[in-house]
Amino acid sequence: WWDHVLPAPKDPITSVTEAFLSDPSPLKLNLGVGAYRDDKGEPVTLECVRRAAEKISGCQFLESTKAAAKSKFVEDSVKLAYGNDFNVVREGRFAGVPALSGTGACRLFAQFQRRFYPDSRMFIPMPSWSNHHDIWRDSQVCTSTYHYYDPDTKGLQFQALMNDIKNAPDCSFFLLHPCAHNPTGVDPNYEQWKEVSHIFKIKNHFPFFDMAYQGIASGDLERDAIAIRVFLEDGHLLGCAQSFSKNMGLYGHRVGCVSIVSRDEKQATAIKSQLQQIVRAMYSSSPVHGPLLVSTILNDADLKALWEEEVKVMVDRLIRMRITLRRTLEELNSFASWEHITKQVGMFYFSGLSPKEVDRLQRDFHIYMTNDGRISMAGVTSSNVDYLANAIHEVTKV
Ligand code: LMR
C-alpha cells in the first residue's frame, strides 16, 4: 500500500514559516505569511474580540445546527461586503454559508462551480495568492491566468487586463481581488473598476471576489468594498469569499463566508441548499464560536465602532512601516527606486527582489519571505526596519 505516494511539493507560503521556525539565529525575521503583528512583533487579539468573547461566554456550543440556525452570521457578513442598503440584501437575493475562512470559502465556491459548470474554467490574475491555483485544481476546475501586474512599472497592467477580459470566451468565471491584492498590493482604482464591470456585463462573465483583506487596504471597511459595490450597482450576479482572519485577527478561528448573489429568492434558496449539501458531505457544519464572535461585533454599535478604530490602527502601522522602509532605503542612496513601497497597499510589499536576492537575504541575513519577493509588512517593526533596509540595500546594490 501507498508505495506510489511521493512527497508533495512544499507550499510557497507555509514552507517559509517552517524554514523560519527552524532557524536558531536571534536576528531572524519572518516576512513570509500575511498575519498581522504589532510593533513589538507580537500577534494581536483585538479588544473588540475580547469584549465580544466576554459577552458570549455563557453560550452553549454543543449543538452546532441549533446555534447555526439562530446565528445571523451570513447576513451580517454579506451586509459588510455588499452594503446595508443594497437591494440584494434587502430582497434576500443572496445565498451564503459560513466557511472555514477565505480558503474554505474559495474551496466551497470552486466545488459549486465544478458541480454546475463542470466544463468551465477559472481565470486567475497573474500573479495571485498561490493557493488559488491549488484550490481550483483540487476542485477539478481548470484554470487560466489573466494579465494583472506589470513588473516594469510595479503597477497595474490595465490595458492587458482589459484585453484578456475581452478575449476570454463569453460567460467565463474570473477571480478578482477587490482590495489589497495578494501578493502585489496593487489595486484598480474606482474608474478602472467601472470599466472592468462594464466589460464583464458585455461579456456576461461571472465575477468571483476573494475578499480576504476588507479594511486592510485603506483602513476603511466601506471604501475597501468599492469594487463589489460597483459590480452590484451595475446589476451583476456575483460570488464573494470573505475572511475575518486579517481584519478581525481571527486567524486560528477560521471564520469566513461564501455568498452568491442570485436573480431572486427562489434561486437563492436553491443555491443555498446546494452549498449546504457540499458542506455537509465535506465537514458537516462550521464551528460556531468564531461566527458568533463576528456577529456579536457587527450587531453591537459600540463594538463595531471599536473594531473600525482597531482596523485603522493596524493599517496605520503598516503604512508607517512602508514610509520608514522607503525612507531608510532612499537614505542609503540605493540605486533602485523604492516609491512603490508606499504606492502599494495592504499587507504586502511586492518588492521585485529576484529569487537569488531572496535566497541571499535568507542565507546571510536570516530574513524570510516568499520566493517571489513578497514582503509581509506586518512583520516589519520599528526595531527591525533598519536591519531590513540595510539587508535589502546590501543584496540589491550594484
Ligand atoms: C498569505 O498570503 O500569506 C495569507 O493569505 C496566509 C495564507 O494562508 O497563505
From TrEMBL:
UniProt entry tagged with the keyword Transferase: yes
Catalyzed reactions per annotation: L-aspartate + 2-oxoglutarate = oxaloacetate + L-glutamate
Cofactor(s) needed by this chain: pyridoxal 5'-phosphate
Keyword Transferase: yes
EC number: 2.6.1.1
UniProt GO MF annotations: L-aspartate:2-oxoglutarate aminotransferase activity; pyridoxal phosphate binding
GO terms of biological process kind: amino acid metabolic process
A GO CC term assigned to this protein in UniProt: mitochondrion
Assigned keywords, A-Z: Aminotransferase, Pyridoxal phosphate, Transferase
SUPFAM superfamilies for the chain: PLP-dependent transferases
Enzyme class: transferase
Superkingdom of source: Eukaryota
Location of the Aminotransferase class I/classII large domain: 28-392
A Pfam family the protein falls into: Aminotran_1_2
Subunit description: Homodimer.
Family: Belongs to the class-I pyridoxal-phosphate-dependent aminotransferase family.
General remark: In eukaryotes there are cytoplasmic, mitochondrial and chloroplastic isozymes.
PANTHER family: ASPARTATE AMINOTRANSFERASE (PTHR11879)
Full protein name: Aspartate aminotransferase
Natural source organism: Anisodus acutangulus
